[in-house]
Design brief:
Oligomer: single chain
Distance between the termini: 72 Å
CATH topology: Rossmann fold
Mean pLDDT: 91
Order of helices and strands: HHEHEHEHHEHEEHHHEEH
Low-confidence stretches: none
Number of domains: 1
Strand order of the largest sheet: 3-2-1-4-6-5
Helix content: 40-55%
CATH class: Alpha Beta
Length: 270
Amino acid sequence: MLSRKEEIERSIITRFRKDIWRKFTKAVRDYQLIKDGDKIAVCISGGKDSMLLAKCMEELRKHGKANFEICYIVMNPGYRSDVYEKIVDNAKVLGIDIKVFKSNIFEIVDKQVASPCYLCARMRRGFLYARAQELGCNKIALGHHFDDVIETIMLSILYGGEYKSMPPKLKSTNFEGMELIRPLYLVRENSIKKWSEYNNLEFINCACKFTNSNSYSSKRNEVKKLISDLEKDYSNIAANIFKSSENVNVETVLGIKKDNQKISFLDYYN
C-alpha cells in the first residue's frame, strides 16, 4: 500500500501526466533548462506552484536522463507563525527536505511607501540568488507557470505601454554564473489547482500583507479575469497570447529595445 507521499508523487506521472508531467518535461527539454552537472536551488514560497515544482524536480532527478543535484530553499521574509508552520507541515507531507533562511524583508518593505511589491520582489530574488550561490548552486528554479507568462504579457501591454514577456530562463546580471529557470512554464494554473485538490492539499495563497492593497496585484487580477472571460468564447485565446511572444514580426513594429537601447523602425527603414 502506498504512503500518502507516494500517492501524491504517483498522481503527477499518472492522473496528471498529460496536463502537468508532459508539459513540465517538454519545457525542460525544449528550453534546455537543465544540464548534466547542474546544482539547482528550488525556491519554495509555500504556494501550490512552488510545492508542485519541487515534486516535479524530484521526480525528474530520479527518473530523468540528466545528472543533476537539487536543494530546496525557503526564504522566510517575516511570515506570521501560522503561515510558516503551514509551509513546514506541507513540506513534511510531501517529503521535501527544505532549508529555511530568515530575513527581515517584510519589515524593510513595510517602510516603503511607493512600489512595495517591486522592492519586495527585487529583494527576495537577490536573497534567493545569494543563498543558492552559498550552497554551491548555479541555478534557481521558480514556480512561475503558463498563466503567469500570458498575464505578464497582457499587463505590460495594457498598463505598461510595452511588449514584455517572462522568459523560461534568465541569466543573472548581479550574480555571476547564476541562472534562473522556470520549469512549469507550459503548465496551466488550473491543472496545478486540480492536482492540489485531488490530493487534498491545502497551500498558502499569498502571505504578503501588501497584496490586497497594492495596484499591481489588482491589475493582475483584472487581467486574469479578462483572459478567463475571453476564453469562454475563444478557447485558443491563452495559447495565442503565448504564441505572440514567439512570433513577433519586427518589420511591422515602430520600435524595439535591445540592450536598453531603443531602436526606431526609421533607423532601418531606408
